[in-house]
Amino acid sequence: MTKHDAVHSFIKKKIDELTEQTLGFNYSSEEVGQIAITTDFSDRVIKKYFIGAEKAYGFTITLIRPYSTDLDSLNLECMNFVQSFMDWIDEQNRKKNFPDFGESCQIKKMENLQNMPNLSGINPKEGLARYQIQCRIIYFDKEDK
Fold first, then answer.
1. Which of 40, 52, 109, 118 gives the lowest tally of CB atoms within 10 Å of its CB?
2. Mean pLDDT computed over every residue of the chain
């Protein structure tokens, strides 16, 4: 299992709790409810040690939600939904519940790289908003010497 597989499987468990949508990988359609993981970097060395290296795996979670041009509460509800996903990431980090990167890797932390979701685009004509959450996993890799 690759790190990509591990992250996809880990995030998919939460997606399955929230919705019946599939979880895309490096692809997101423009449909309400679509959620995808986009890889930013993998195995980026942060610091080398004699016995291995501290590395980072970066990814972005994209969520397509409905968007309103009215003065209703839909946009606020969508922002709160995405924020709750960020809160889940923080909770997994506190619990030390991480994806399985294999025996040679010890995950130190999984974190959001921002304090609120990024509204990265809107399509008022179609009633869609694209939210993104940037995350990274810091881990120690004993294999990298």
1. 109
2. 92
Could you tell me the CA-to-CA distances from 17 to 14, 82, 119 in Å, in that order? 5, 14, 23
Q: For the domain made up of 3-141, give the CATH fold.
A: STM4215-like (3.30.2000)
Dihedral pair phi/psi, residue 4, rounded to 5°: -60, -45
User: Which candidate, 140, 128, 133, 139, places its Cα nearest to that of 40?
Assistant: 133
pLDDT in tens, 26-63: 888 888 888 999 999 888 999 999 999 999 999 999 99
At residue 29, the pLDDT reads: 83
Domain residue ranges of the chain, discontinuous segments joined by +: 3-141
With contact defined as beta carbons under 8 Å apart, do 66 and 127 qualify?
Answer: yes
Q: What is the DSSP string of 67-97?
A: --SSSSSHHHHHHHHHHHHHHHHHHHHHHT-
Q: What is the pLDDT of residue 145?
A: 54
Which pairing describes strands 52-66 and 118-123: parallel, antiparallel, or unpaired? unpaired
